[in-house]
Amino acid sequence: MLLSAVIFLPLLGAILIALARHILGESGLKWIALIVTLLTFVVSISLYTGFDASTHDMQFKEERPWIEGLGISYHLGIDGISLWLVLLTTFMTPICVLAAWNSIEKGASGFMISLLMLETAMLGVFCALDLFLFFVFWEAMLIPMYLLIGIWGGHRRIYATIKFVLYTMAGSALMLVGILYLYFQNDNSFNLMTLYGRTLSHQNLLFMAFFIAFAIKVPLFPFHTWLPDAHVEAPTVGSVILAGVLLKMGTYGIVRFCMPLFPEGVAAYTPLIVTLSVIGIIYGALVAMVQPDLKKLVAYSSVSHLGFVVLGLFALNQQGVQGGILQMINHGLSTGGLFLLVGMIYERRHTRMIADFGGLSKQMPIFAVFFMIVTLSSIGLPGLNGFVGEFMILLGGFMSDSFSKVYTIIATTGVILAAVYMLWMFQRVMFGKLDNPKNQALNDLSPREIAVLVPIVIFIVWIGVYPKPFLSRMEQSVSQVLQQSKPTATVKADTPTLALDITTKEAKKIDE
Amino acid sequence: MTINWQLLMPELIIILTFILVAIFDLFDSLQKTFTAWITIVGSAIALYVSIDMLQIGTEGTEFSNMIQVDKYSLFFNVIFLVSTILVALISMNYLGRQDRRQGEYYLLILLATLGMMLMASGNELIVVFLGLELMSLSLYVLAGYFQRSMVSSEAGMKYLLLGAFASGFFLYGIALVYGGAGTTNIPQIAATLTGDAKSPLLLTGMFLLIVGFGFKVALVPFHQWAPDVYEGAPTSIAAFISAGPKAAGFAAFLRIFLDALQHLQSEWIIVVTILAALTMTVGNLVAIAQRNIKRMLAYSSIAHAGYVLVGLAAANKDGISSAMFYLLVYCIMNIGAFGAVILARTEDGESLRISDYAGLGFKKPLLALFMTLMLLSLAGFPPTAGFVGKFYIFRSAVESGQIWLVIIGAINTAISAFYYLRVVVAMYMREPEAELDFLAYPRTLIVAMTLAAIGVVLIGILPSYFLSPAQISTFL
Predict the structure, then answer these.
(1) What is the ipTM, given to two decimal places?
(2) What are phi and psi of A81, to 5 degrees?
(3) Would you call B407 an interface residue with chain A, using a CB distance cutoff of 8 Å?
């Protein structure tokens, strides 16, 4: 019941707000939203504490028949991979509620309802173990996000939101066919657990049917064009959720479905995918470098960062995949944080152009500190979270048997480029002369805004300094995925232990 | 010979209701909506009886094997009666604004409903044809019901001409099938058609039947009448035409092709597959270009006929039950969508341009919510009924190996999202161009919309209650 509670608490909150919005008043419903999301987070912490790291099995399982006539069940469960994404979601949403506190001008009730429904859908995606249920949540996520961008977004919001929906739907159309095809290979059942371990036919086609849907969501180059539009037009909170959680649905899908279900597809397409992700890393970084708009810059940096994640996943070894998953969390924290910070100055100045700023560190010292930490985390400074993830991904890339070292070498330059565009941006915004009179009147962060940022910074440092609790809980699940994603399904699980040693050593090294 | 009247209870109740409406229509002192209430109560009783018979599993043939009452026909009765009740509810206030008696309106609706029921239970091509004509003739009149409106008269005229043409094709098809098989009884046709010999007479008859049905359920390329008729007809009648009659057409289509002409499956399946792909694609693509919401819904309903046809193209047991389930869902959501159009009325009539809906999301939240819900369901977003319906149809088609058709269908779903969401965009994301004074919500319309909304959400979340009956009610 714990997972159901976590998933549907936000929905209950949304219903409560919908019914009582006239009684509550604007601030009342914001408080309700905050309390509900915080409660969801608190409940989800018990998933962390109750999690058994020694097994790769799905935990907190719930299974009930739902639509028996079609072999559909209400089947939930999490392993060491989805655990983190669930926690990331429940962690980011209250932050978003708090961040949106004063920035929503019209229809605050609708905004909070959409946000809460979105949280339910995202959590459902990460917990569903039934393909139908997964697809339901996957598609259900679209509508609240569509409304968030379309109603509360910027000038070109309608274009951006329709593009977002159509891209996703086009991808999921093929996935739907893939899901149906799997159903008949799975004795007329959508149960994911019985699907694991079957040797499926038409794996290459099925792999692509799923992968394109996920690649659009990630987004992997060349499917990324919706992302800058969506990010730029979305309200701050929309961008945070989009970068923080939604994109991870794509990479999660790759780990949960593409890799373990279709090892032949993995083997066949790894070169292509790795090439695309390396292109994405470099291309995203280069385009980010020349962006005059802060939000666009961060959006393109997302393309680059998620290229790293995909590279790590397709390294197909313990370090790479664990690094990829950790980097999903890291990216959620640091890019989410960056969008929050950009949103904060946007609220003050109503511009996001880098050229309009300069010397802000003198006027807003607290803001500058937070911005610095998050920027460095995004670059991957040792001691902060981004380093651990990127290091493991690159290590995995070098050790990988599935692609040549050249890819990893090129990808490494992405790290350098990240430093270039992020630090250059930071320099132009924060340092220099404070000569714009509008900037001279800016207020520093309010206590509410500090409260929004502090939790993120805590985790940025925590993961950077002591990633072991994160890595240790995903070890077993990752090695299970790796074992399943080997083309010959009969390989025994002997390699992971070696790999585990290395990762823990790595963790210790970073500890010191 | 004794006739088992119990078998025909739903039909008899509708006839009785018809008589009552005709009698009470004579009393001028009664309220204008009185006949509507009789229609609703009568249909509700018939609905109850149908559901009851469906649960008991009443089956049997009557009138020398001409009428076949089985779970299949009873399930379709449920679809028709639900549509009739919803349409009567949305009509009441809509017509009330026209200063005239409404008796004949409901009489015709009841007659059309009776015709649909005959089509679903016809065990004989002639009975199917009779039902088809009973339904169509009533609809021609209903489409032109607003005599003073030019567009309405034009719609009625167009519908009559093209419909009569289609009936001609259909009848000719029946004649040729009779020539080929020597009988018009559906099970007997199936029994005679064995062996490899497929007479050209039979094949021609089969194609003519496809053309006839194609007109009636508006498949591309036989769909041209639909947008004009939907646009011109009273909106409540557009809702009616798009729902029940389409379901009735499919009821007969499925039964004739999967029972009587089962032997010719290898011949017709390719045609049906192509028609399905064409209908979905053309319907959705042309819908994108529409600026008038009734025309948009007309093209959308064409596209939906394409989805249902995928169920026929699957040509298996699940194909039939998924088509049945989808038709039920489709009727509810489509009538709901037209109902929302009726809701958005000003003193000058309905707001039919999509741009008129700008800003409604904040000005008329209830209307916008209903409309959004119906459109999301039509677009097939979970957790609405439309999603489960499409999912089941696609599932049955994958089962029979029609992967390409499913891919086309799935892509079409994505395309359709574009124009459905455009209305949502207008309602929630655009500023209104002109200040329109919308009328207050009529109560019966709100009841109808609430029922449709509950149906759409309930079937979406707990489809089993509706899906299992569909699964056990096929004739295969």
Answers:
(1) 0.90
(2) -90, -50
(3) yes
B-chain residues near A173 (CB < 8 A) = 407, 410-411, 413-414
Please compute, for residue A410, the number of CA atoms within 13 A of its CA located in the half-sphere on the CB side: 17
Cβ of residue B388 closer than 8 Å to a chain A Cβ: yes
- Residues of chain B scoring pLDDT < 50: none
Our CA-based measurement puts residue A486 at a distance from the nearest CA of chain B, in whole angstroms, of 28
Which of B425, B456, B466 should one mutate to test binding to chain A, selecting the residue with the greatest count of A CBs within 10 A?
B425
Q: Does A31 touch chain B (CB under 8 A)?
A: no
Q: What is the pLDDT, as a whole number, of residue A497?
A: 45
| Residues in chain B closer than 8 A to A169 (CB atoms) | 413-414, 417
Residues A136, B399: C-beta atoms closer than 8 Å: no
Q: Which residues in chain B have Cβ-Cβ distances shorter than 8 Å to A177?
A: 394, 398, 403, 406-407, 410
Contact (CB, 8 A) for A76 and A4: yes
Q: Tens digits of per-residue pLDDT, B295-305? A: 999 999 999 99
Distance, in Å, from the CA atom of B58 to the CA atom of B70, rounded to the nearest integer, reads 6
Contacts of B462 (CB under 8 A, 6+ apart): none
Q: What is the DSSP string of B269-336?
A: HHHHHHHHHHHHHHHHHHHHT--BHHHHHHHHHHHHHHHHHHHHHHTSHHHHHHHHHHHHHHHHHHHH
Out of B362, B387, B417, name the one closest to residue A107 (CB).
B362
Which H or E element spans position B349? Answer: strand B349-350
With CA atoms as reference, report the closest residue to A179 among A130, A223, A143. Answer: A130
The neighbour count for residue B95, using CB atoms within 10 Å, is 22
Return the closest-CA partner of residue A232 out of A160, A292, A152: A160
Query: Given CB atoms, is A140 within the 8 Å cutoff of chain B?
Result: yes
Written as one string, the DSSP assignment of A258-287 is: IHHH-HHHHHHHHHHHHHHHHHHHHHHHHH
Find residue A75's DSSP bridge partners.
A63
The rounded distance, in Å, linking the Cα atoms of A320 and B78 is 57
- Kindly give the pairing relationship between strand A59-67 and strand A72-78: antiparallel
Query: Three-state SS for A292?
Result: coil
CA atoms of A245 and A123, how far apart (whole Å): 10
Which position has the token pair 């962390």?
Answer: A48
What are the average pLDDT values for consecutive 10-residue runs of chain A, which has 512 residues? 89 89 82 91 90 85 87 89 91 90 81 91 92 92 89 86 88 89 87 84 88 90 88 88 90 90 88 91 91 89 91 90 91 91 87 84 86 90 88 89 86 89 88 80 85 90 88 87 72 45 51 48
Q: Return the SS3 of A191.
A: strand
Phi, psi of B105 (to 5 degrees): -60, -50
What are the tokens at B104? 């004949």
Mutation target to probe the A interface, by most A beta carbons within 10 A, among B317, B364, B384, B398 is B398
Contact B61, B3 (CB under 8 A): no
Report the chain B residue with the minimal C-alpha distance to residue A110: B362
The one-letter code for the residue type at B293 is: I
Give the pLDDT of residue B376: 92
Q: Which residues of chain A does B285 touch, with a Cβ-Cβ cutoff of 8 Å?
A: none
Whole-angstrom distance, CA of residue B215 vs CA of residue B162? 8
Joined tokens for residue B425 = 């965009």
Rounded CA separation B141/B155 (Å): 10
Q: Contact at 8 Å (CB) between A264 and A487?
A: yes
Pick the residue of B429, B458, B461 with the most A CBs within 10 A to test the interface with A by mutation: B429
| Residue labelled with tokens 């089941």 | B392
Decide if B360 contacts B427 (C-beta within 8 A): yes
- Using the Cβ of A165 and the Cβ atoms of chain B, whether some distance falls under 8 Å is answered with yes
